[in-house]
Design goal:
Blueprint lengths: L1 H22 L11 E9 L5 E6 L7 E2 L7 E6 L5 E6 L3 E6 L6 E4 L4 E8 L5 E8 L4 E8 L6 E4 L7 E2 L5 E6 L4 E6 L6 E2 L10 E3 L6 E4 L12 E4 L7 E2 L8 E7 L6 E6 L6 E5 L7 E5 L6 E7 L4
Antiparallel strand pairs: 1-2, 1-24, 2-3, 4-5, 5-6, 6-7, 8-9, 9-10, 10-11, 12-13, 13-14, 14-15, 16-17, 17-18, 18-19, 20-21, 21-22, 22-23
């Protein structure tokens, strides 16, 4: 009798654990994580941008790609070993962090594929697809080998990102260029920023509680660009920087440990500089400055693991 009682108790405990796991959100592979290299695109000569990496102390700048054309919009894999990027504006390619094993993953003769980002489990990309014939921009997903392409939504397109728990999708959408959040299947779309044209780069905090974006994608000379955080439900719209007219603070994203936000600052009399700042707006540090290799579309990756 005692043996049967113990077996029953064990079975109940196992079922309770399984139920808890089923209800718990999937934790992103990059949280918590150690901070690794920072990737970005920068113009090189007349051919357009290539992908670079730099250490988080601003040292050891390394040019990752040397393609005959354009390499842009880098995004780190959750294991910190690879970078997905846009190749020649309308194809998606992957490269190892050291520049090896560069290969095209996907292209489409009838469409432009770009702006790919890894899902937190590293198994798929979400990306933007522009249909030339229909003139429709939409968000799709596919496996990292380019197969199993699935439509998600045509409510937006640029910089689609999946939340760390894998349940939400964020993107810049029409008509004003605001920031939106939807369910991962494209349903339940909510505008979470004011009706302004936010920048074409944003990011989720590794704990999924906030997103970071900059507030002006096309500033006039009398306007500024500043870094803002907001909750996924649209509350707590909070400015981290307060630069005056003429200054541009274009955000890259969060560090993998969630302790920093990286952005590029340009303005009158300034050499373009990459900075890091705490998510509460404190502890500003310059990381890297250059008048020739100017970091754009910045993505802070995790330390590589195997």
């Amino acid at each position: 009798m005692a043996r049967r009682r113990r077996a029953a108790i064990l079975a109940i405990a196992v079922l309770s654990t399984l139920a808890t796991l089923a209800l718990a959100p999937a934790v992103g592979a990059t949280y918590p994580a150690r901070n690794g290299l920072i990737a970005f695109q920068a113009d090189v000569g007349d051919n357009g941008p290539q992908i670079f990496t730099v250490r988080s102390n601003g040292k050891q700048l390394h040019q990752v790609t040397h393609v005959d054309g354009v390499a842009a919009q880098p995004d780190w894999s959750p294991d910190g070993r690879r970078i997905v990027f846009t190749l020649n504006e309308c194809a998606i390619a992957v490269v190892d962090a050291d520049g090896g094993n560069l290969h095209e993953v996907a292209s489409d003769a009838g469409a432009c594929l770009n702006d790919a980002n890894y899902t937190p489990d590293g198994a798929r990309f979400v990306y933007t697809r522009f249909d030339f014939a229909l003139e429709i921009e939409s968000i799709w997903s596919m496996k990292v080998d380019g197969s199993d392409r699935r439509f998600i939504t045509d409510a937006g397109g640029p910089d689609a990102n999946v939340s760390p728990d894998g349940r939400k999708l964020s993107f810049k959408g029409p008509p004003d260029g605001a920031l939106f959040v939807a369910n991962i299947d494209g349903s339940g779309i909510d505008q979470i920023s004011p009706s302004i044209s936010v920048t074409y780069k944003h990011d989720w905090a590794p704990d999924g509680r906030h997103l970071v974006v900059s507030d002006n994608s096309d500033p006039s000379p009398t306007e500024s660009v500043n870094v803002v955080t907001v909750r996924p439900d649209g509350t707590d719209w909070t400015y981290l920087t307060h630069y005056p007219a003429g200054y541009r603070a274009n955000v890259g994203g969060y560090s993998p440990d969630g302790q920093w936000i990286v952005f590029r600052l340009e303005g009158p009399g300034l050499v373009p500089t990459m900075y890091r700042i705490r998510p509460d707006g404190s502890d500003l540090h310059a990381l890297y400055a250059s008048s020739t290799i100017i970091p754009r579309f910045i993505d802070w990756g995790p330390a590589a693991h195997h």
